[in-house]
Amino acid sequence: MLFNSVNFALFLPIVFILYWFVANKNLKLQNILLLVSSYFFYACWDWRFMFLLIFSTLLDYFTGLKMADSNTKAGKKFWFWLSIIVNLGFLAVFKYYNFFAESFAELIAGFGFHVEPWTLQVILPVGISFYTFHGLSYVIDIYKNRIPAEKDFVEYSVFVSFFPLLVAGPIERATHLLPQIKVKRNFDYDKAVDGLRQILWGLFKKIVIADQCAVYANQVFNDAGNQGGSSLFLGALFFTFQIYGDFSGYSDIALGTARLFGIELLRNFAFPYFSRDIAEFWRRWHISLSTWFRDYLYIPLGGSKGGTWMKVRNTFIIFLVSGFWHGANWTFIAWGFLNALFIMPSIIFNTNRNNLEIVAKGRIFPSLKELLSITITFLMTVFAWIFFRSESISSAFVFIKGIFTESFFVLPGIKTYMLFLLILFFMMIEWLGREEQFALHRFGLGWPRPIRHGFYMLLIVAIFVFSSKEQQFIYFQF
Predict the structure, then answer these.
(1) Nearest-5° angle of CA 201, CA 202, CA 206?
(2) Directed axis angle between helix 174-182 and helix 153-161, to 10°?
(3) Which residue in 162, 148, 140, 203 sits closest to 2, CA to CA?
(4) N or C: which end of the chain has fewer CB within 10 A?
(5) Cis amide linkage into residue 13, ω under 30° from 0
(6) What distance in Å separates the CA atoms of residue 55 and residue 48, rounded to the nearest whole number?
(7) 453 is known as an active-site residue
């Protein structure tokens, strides 16, 4: 069930009405409703993989209880590693087995031996990377004595499978979400209206920006060998806006939907394309994943306490793992490696925390220095996205080589004037709302009501005009 589908437009109000008008006086009933709704939401994708979600939930729930009840350190460690190994084992089989099998066959072929790898003919279960990481953070936090084991199975199951975040995040923490599930939630009109605004902006990002950019980006990337340099550059540029509009649009819809039910999810994007360096970009892009790797990988590896060499080593590790998390392809690893290289100067010279505040805070326009820094960082990001989008490393190099030719100075063959106007409008709203939680959080609240509602209607009309067919979200494949 897609957020941008008619089915979800029917599903959401039904659950909302039952939640606030039928189950509102009983917390247990509210949580059961959320759990049943979440399982129904997931089953609409492919009911055959429900067993994986339920098994993962049961595994982490019971191993959490066993760790809490263990009287010895060895017993606690046994249940901890059982959960880690089984969870990562399922992820490895469904997401990475074919990659390793085919890569091994290619390696052996390089020595003159032919091996026909045995591969699995199975689709990737949607959301497996996200709900697996939910469970992993939970058992790690119990093992580290940060939280107690949850005894209520329904409450824990809602934490893992809450439908707004189930298939593409944000990656939640038990320390943040479980306490909200365990307490009575009262309807807050202002919070619900704010949630609707965030859903509206998320749908605009997805349908009007991302899906329209995808048309041209796909056209260029799927036929890169026959494109001129200017068309290739535009293709990379459009993919840059496609993946941001698509993924941050999903996150906006997820956070806005959760807010309708009185629940606050972790913020996942903070206007990353206005970053002044790569370190700032990674504090603002897919925040829930970046902080997950920081807390559960980078810091346990020693973080930045062991000198420059340890910081460099650990930074490369988390970026390579982050790239591999995105998919079983060398292109994702190359993308992670490239971002590690980009961030390395700020790590070595300790400038990675120079830009903690949003750019041009309290001002309408950035300074010339800020504008130059944003532009350079943005172009570095565009370059890295070429590897992320390409089918292979070789095709990425062909794509890049094609950009840096004299045809770069020839007008592109694709007509994209309307799309540029849409992107310009989109980025203008993002810029004006960059100091808030999302672009429309307070945007226009001081306007007269007819003008403000007219603006919302403009966004709604644009969504309907450009919604020719339902398009999946990019991060569903991860």
Answers:
(1) 115
(2) 130
(3) 203
(4) N
(5) no
(6) 13
(7) no
Least confident of 26-35, 300-309, 400-409, 420-429: 300-309
Question: What integer pLDDT is reported at residue 94 of this predicted model?
Answer: 80
Q: How far is CA 210 from the centre of its chain?
A: 14
Residues 288/165, Cβ–Cβ less than 8 Å: no
What pTM does this model have? Answer: 0.93
CA distance 246 to 218: 14
The letter for the amino acid at 141 is D
Closest C-alpha to 398, from 225, 216, 236: 225
Give yes or no for a contact between 280 and 249, defined as CB atoms under 8 angstroms apart.
no
Which is the catalytic residue, given 176, 326, 441, 453?
Answer: 326
Tell me: the pLDDT tens digits for 208-248? 999 999 999 999 999 888 888 999 999 999 999 999 999 99
DSSP 99-123: HHHHHHHHHHHTTT----------P
Count the neighbouring beta carbons within 10 Å of the beta carbon of residue 422.
19
User: pLDDT tens digits for 154-180?
Assistant: 999 999 999 999 888 799 999 999 999
Buried b (16+ CB within 10 A) or exposed e, 293-319: beebebeeeeebeeeeeebeebbbbbb
